[in-house]
Structure formats: C-alpha cells, structure tokens
Amino acid sequence: MNLKDKLFKKPWPYWVGGIILALLNILLLFTTGSAWKISTSFLYIGSAILDRIGINTNDWYYFNVYTNQLKPEDTYLNNRLIVMAVAIILGSLLSVLFVSEFKFKKIKNKKQLVVALIGGILMGYGSRLSFGCNVGAYFSAIPSFSVHGWVFGAFMFVGAWVGSKILFKYIL
C-alpha cells in the first residue's frame, strides 16, 4: 500500500481528525479573529439572490436587530465567510477527486428525495433560528467554555439517535 492510500483512502482515527480540526480552528481564529461559521454564509448567499431580484433584505428585522456582521467594504457575496464556505466545498471536491472516490448516486425513490429536501430546509431554518449550526456550536462555543455548546451537543446526539430510528423504520 502506497503513502497516498494510507493517508487519503484509509479512514483516520477520530482523535487524529479531532486534533487536526482543533489546530485548524486555532489557526482560523488566530488569522481572522473570528470563529468558524458556515450557516451565515448561506444566509448571505440567499440575501444576495433576493437583492438581485429586487427584494431589499437590509431593511429586514433580522439584519436591523442582529446586524449582518459584514465590514463596510464587504458585500453579501464578497466576504470572508463566503470565501471559507467555497473553500470547504472545493476542498472536499478536490479531496474526493484526488483519491478517485467521486461518484453520483442514484436517488432510490421520490420519498427519499422529498424527505431529504424537507430535512435540509428544516436544518437550515433551525440553524438560523439558533444563530448557528453544529460547526459554530462545537468550534466556537465548546472551546470558549460556553455551557450552550455542551447542551447543544447533548441534544444533537439525542436528535441524531431519534432521527436515525425514524429514518430506518419509515423511510429507508
């Protein structure tokens, strides 16, 4: 087995992945002064699309009360959060292409498609209601010794367990 297969095709132990993610989070915090955020970039993309079709989102309650966290020279499509989200997506694509693991999977049935779309919409809506997602909760709250990150983590595991039981019993 060559080095490429050992490093990229075989799964790494969880502790190695955890250490690498922790080091990357420290590097991100050190270089940008901000914690890792993902779902906010999708909010900005949605706002940019709405702005392009003539709906002004700057006057919305959310952006007036909670601000949009952009620097004055930034736009919804030109800011560090968008760059980070695009880099994560492209990095993931390049990594699966590098080890020849990219493939399209056929959707089994319409029920699976509908459930996946509804689940994605609910997850996105829920992440905006809570002002973040699991990435923000783990890589921002827990390292900052915030109690809400640990509460989120406990309930996320419970929700994943219940969701997987429902998924296997009724959908798959």
TrEMBL record:
Membrane-spanning ranges: 12-30, 81-102, 114-141, 147-168
Residue stretches in coiled coil: none
Main location: membrane
Iron recorded as keyword: no
Keywords: Cell inner membrane, Cell membrane, Membrane, Transmembrane, Transmembrane helix, Transport
Subcellular location: Cell inner membrane
Its membrane topology: Multi-pass membrane protein
InterPro entries (UniProt xref): Sulf_transp_TsuA/YedE
Family label: Belongs to the TsuA/YedE (TC 9.B.102) family.
Protein name: YeeE/YedE family protein
